[in-house]
Amino acid sequence: MNYIYKFEKKVHFIIVILITLILCLVFYLEYKPNAYEIRMNNECIAYVKNIEAFEASIKDLEKELNKKFKKFKFTDKFTYSKIHIEYKYLTSKNDIEKNIINNSKTKVEPIEIKKTTEIKKSTQIKQNTVKEKAKVAATNKIRLLRPCNGRVSSSFGMRNGKMHKGMDIANHMGSTIHSAYDGVVSYAGWISGYGKVIKIDHGGGLETTYAHCSSINVKKNQHVKKGDKIGEVGSTGRSTGPHVHFEVRVNGVPQNPAKYV
Ligand SMILES: [Zn+2]
């Protein structure tokens, strides 16, 4: 009896060991690393089966980019880690290329684009006289005076789905509006929406606009200095309260006034 009991206990023990081993094997087969996660500058960009194939595809991509861009070479850091993944989640070659290009910190300079900007620049320079060139250069550094004291009630940019082309400065009715810079009054009168409006041409393509005034204190073609009183704050035109709508344009293109004042 005692012998049989001992034998049964041994068999039980062996069965338990076998089941554990089988479970381990199943678990290993199910979850063993079968692919690589590739990170570029610490962003995951792809899951691939084979590292060698991935490295070869980077070299191909580099060659291809070399044709489009000048002396292109990735300076990005690639790291790999083994993972388990279902093969349907592997990243396609096209997506890998897209992700690499999107995540690359390598500076690329398209040859074609560079050429066109150079052509544009040279024609522009020919068009401008030497004096104008100096003015255009100065425009980039000009500090404008804030035309009025008060709170910025609305800044430059998209507003309710529409572009707000200037900066609104709210102040009491009748507060002084100053010229933001030396220049010549290019317009003084009424414009639909803007109400009573003053425009000053500062040369070099730079122009400032002051809208919704209650009164205008300058005339067209009048020379003004930076800080001169040109008008008073009002609410004429399309306006919901007394403020000056201040615009800065360079060659007619609205700029963010905050960058100039
Ligand atoms: Zn405005």
From TrEMBL:
Domain of life: Bacteria
Signal peptide: none
Keywords for this protein: Coiled coil, Membrane, Signal, Transmembrane, Transmembrane helix
Gene3D superfamilies given in the database record: Glucose Permease (Domain IIA)
Coiled coil spans: 44-71
Keyword Aminoacyl-tRNA synthetase tagged: no
Key word Transmembrane helix present: yes
TM region(s), chain numbering: 12-31
Residue ranges constituting the M23ase beta-sheet core domain according to the UniProt record: 162-257
Pfam family, one: Peptidase_M23
Full protein name: M23 family metallopeptidase
UniProt source species: Clostridium ganghwense
Phylogenetic placement of the source organism: Bacteria, Bacillati, Bacillota, Clostridia, Eubacteriales
